[in-house]
Amino acid sequence: MLPPPITHPIFCMSQIMSDIKSGIQYMFQTRNSMTFAVSGTGHTAMECAICNAVEPGESVLTAVNGIWGERAADMADRIGGRVNTMVAAPGVFFTNAEIEQALSKHRPVLFFLTHGESSTGVLHPLEGIGQLCLKYNCLFLVDSVASIGGAPLHMDRQGIDILYTGSQKVLNAPPGTAPISFSERACQKIFSRRTKPVSFCLDLSWLANYWGCDGKPSRVYHHTGPVTAFYSLRESLAVLAEEGLENSWERHQKVAEYFHTALESMGLKLFVKEKNARLPTVTTIVAPHGYDWKDITSYLMKTHNLEISGGLGPSVGLVLRVGLMGCNSSKANVDMVLAALKDALKHCHKNKM
Ligand code: PMP
Q1: Ligand 1 center–CA 90 separation, angstroms
Q2: Looking at the structure, do residues 187 and 296 belong to the same domain, yes or no?
Q3: ipTM summary value
Q4: Nearest to residue 320, comparing CAs of 301, 302, 335?
Q5: Which of 181, 190, 196, 270 has the fewest CB within 10 Å, making it most exposed?
Q6: 321 annotated as ligand-binding
Q7: Considering the entire predicted model, what is its pTM?
């Protein structure tokens, strides 16, 4: 006779999903019941936020200081929003006075801002912006894909109406699920729309039911969830909770400062001048003068099996970008990156330009 199979504790999927919801509420520092994970990556959550919050013809304002504000503007435009952008040079951020001026001029229903601008390395200050959005009767949408868990953010206290992130950054889970949360004010606007959101897959009414956020007794089949990704998302949220948010923020900050000081002592320049606005998870280094940045990144990949990227969108050609987040944010990894970079600078021939 065969022995009985090994028995594991039984977790039903709805329990896994409910644990994910609590984990996201903790990570986002929110009590919003409309909190869940979209099936898809960070872009999917961005599109979910915009396509639910905006109806055709409504005014949208996006803050563009890198690629993500451009992407949000593109998405809002595709669904028929009247899009206005406020644009700053890559590497800088907006003051609250500039934001207020743009809100009063454009009177948007939605204002988009990126907390951790991974294409430029800017950590945007958030204090006071939620209150401004409330004053102008506008929803405040924040992209925290590259920052959540690595830099302080308090969704409820900071008056953020819609917040999303991805699973593959500080959480170190595989890509494919994207945590998102909607405030009561956001839900009120979304559930009193005159038109249906153009996307069936991302329609908040369906997703709310799928995730048990609508208070209805039963869940109706909407789509097949990426269940293995849900398991890993749950685990990654548990790992973050075990370390503690404050400890994680502090670790990322300390490691980033250690990295930045060492880079400067090597004679390299940091792209973001304002110290407090340097994103602890993604460091942007001014592309070293006299080198072709592509030589450096391909040498590092070939010789050290290390992926450092060039710029993205408006920062192409201007920077090298180093991502150290989640379990990768450690002094040991910084030392490894520094040694590899030193080697690359020695070996990559300087241009004769
Ligand atoms: N926003 C930011 C700030 C990001 O860094 C990224 C990914 N690099 C995205 C959005 C898009 O996320 P994804 O690639 O998971 O779609």
Answers
A1: 17
A2: no
A3: 0.99
A4: 301
A5: 196
A6: yes
A7: 0.95
